[in-house]
Amino acid sequence: MTWKTGVPQRTDSRWWSGRHALACLVLLAGPACATTYYGTAEAWDTNPERAMPANRVGGIEVEARQGDIGVEAAPGDSVLATARVGRAKTWGPVSGSCPEAADGAFAIVSDLDHGHLTLSLEPEPGDECVVRWELRVPARLAVTARMTAGDIEVSGVRGGLQLRTGAGDVRVHVPEGDVFARAQVGSVRVWSQAPSHREATLATQVGDVELTLEGHRFEHRKPAGAGDALSLSGTGTDRLDLKSHVGDVFLALRDPGEGRGDAPER
User: Fold this and answer.
1) 25 contact partners, CB below 8 Å, separation of at least 6
2) How many whole angstroms separate alpha carbon 13 and alpha carbon 19?
């Protein structure tokens, strides 16, 4: 997974401004309405990193207000977490601040409870901060990731995913496993290489739904109105539940051109 450091992921600021204005209407209140987020930081102030053994871990959870969350499967049985923290490009009233500090201003804190590992930053970043989480984890782990405003990307994890963003895109490549993905304002795009699935549900209230099977597009009758929905069932065990409030939803099953969902050798 490649990350662009200090370079806007969305080059058209009007795209982010418009989407976050719409997110305010959808979400009504909260940090998504406090700032306009352009997908990058003015400067990266600190870059805490932490490595942890994962032999007692079955699942991992991370949450951020605005920025990005990226999770990638890696060999071995440990978790490597990096959190880039910087000042967000914002306008309008903000309630918090992001300290202009050297390395060490923030620290990654972990809490392990019955096999569930939760990661957070201390002190808690304010509303003017962008946090870009980068996690390298064993493929077997279950992953929970939540964003108020920003993108989530996961690759190679087979232990099951619970992903949610208020304003941003969700992009997933997995070899197998359950996927629950929600975007209030943004697209959901999933590639799964599992040989079969128990059920798959795709839905959006405003947008389009698309499904491909082994590279072939699955045609369906779109319902009347602004939204779209599609569901199918099979003989496998994995469940895929993909929904957006405002945005497109895409699912590719066993796509021969998408090998990035393959987990690394353990």
Assistant:
1) none
2) 10
Comparing CA positions, the residue from 159, 157, 45 lying closest to residue 171 is 157
Q: In DSSP terms, which residues pair with 252 in a beta bridge?
A: 191, 212
Q: Where are the domains of the chain?
A: 22-253
Residue 174's closest CA among 73, 244, 256, 78?
A: 73
How far apart (Å, rounded) are the C-alpha atoms in residues 221 and 228? 9
The answer to whether residues 130 and 37 touch, using CB atoms and an 8 Å cutoff, is: yes
- pTM score, whole prediction: 0.81
Q: Distances in Å between the alpha carbon of 225 and those of 187, 207, 229, 246, 248?
A: 18, 10, 11, 13, 14
Q: From CA 108, how far away is CA 104, in angstroms rounded?
A: 10
Q: Are strands 59-73 and 116-122 parallel, antiparallel or unpaired?
A: parallel
Confidence at 56, pLDDT banded by 50, 70, 90: very high
| Count of all residues that appear for the chain in the document | 266
Q: In whole angstroms, what is the distance from residue 25 CA to residue 19 CA?
A: 10
pLDDT band with cut points at 50, 70 and 90 for residue 42: low
Query: Sign of the C-alpha dihedral, residues 40, 65, 248, 255?
Result: positive
- Other beta carbons within 10 angstroms of residue 50's beta carbon come to 14
Average pLDDT, the chain: 81
